[in-house]
Amino acid sequence: MGISSDNVHGLVLAVSSSIFIGCSFIIKKKGLKKAGDTGTRAGSGGYSYLYQPLWWAGMVTMIVGEIANFAAYAYAPAILVTPLGALSIIFSAVLAHFILEEKLHIFGMLGCVLCVVGSVTIVLHAPQERIIHSVKEVWYLATEPGFIVYTCIVVVVVAVLIFRYVPRYGQTHLVVYIGICSLTGSLTVMSVKAVGIALKLTFSGMNQFIFFQTWFFTIVVIAFCLLQINYLNMALDTFNTAVVSPVYYVMFTSLTIFASMIMFKDWDSQDASQIATELCGFVTILSGTFLLHKTKDMGNSTPVQPPVFTSPSHPSSNSNSR
Description:
Blueprint: H1 5-38, H2 53-75, H3 78-81, H4 86-100, H5 106-125, H6 135-142, H7 145-169, H8 174-203, H9 212-238, H10 241-263, H11 272-294, H12 315-321
């Protein structure tokens, strides 16, 4: 059936978004490092990075990427747009290798290739975008029992992570910070898609901002984005960028696709072979990100050479050691 024009627009915007977001990780990390040298680190609850021009440059770059990503969701389904975020991992890993000296091992390069192969597979078999004529239709989908149950579970889990697990395990367990970002991110994407559709329809002559649903989705986007930025900063300041990017991608993408399946029912128009191919593509991407994660320190390790000559121990030292 081929790729629809809307999916092509979404693809171009998603790839552009990945380039900007991948670069923003590096720029923000540089800013966070500088801020940590002169004040309290973000990982320790400090906000000195707000005075760093580099961090703000990274934020601007990320905002540009997020705007492109925002627009992509208005044209293409989440199952197409979200997995392409793997490309940002490639850009951030490569740039971290050259700029931050977080070395990329040969297996990390293989992981990047797997991410690209999986992304191409998903792009070629992605479902067509659902035709929506009003933001009220999105509201109806969001208020169905299945998605309401998912939303309640996410809110409860995020609250538990923030108030119970962040103070105890935030500095030692990456999954705490990334879990908060990913869970709220899945709801953010659904709201972003709703606002994107509202803007698209408004620009075509059907004003959607006369409905309270559009403003509700907008508030959700702003609130959850601020929450994600805060905890993503903590994760970046505490853990290696080459770890944060792939783990965040895997959790965020998995939860977003799951949320999209519940809310927009993306797979209703596809047969079993198409769904299986998309899943294979997604698993390929997961394999690539796992490989990047597991080999993150290989490039930094230097083999320890045994000494050519070892001097014999003196009798006095042997007697002292006894």
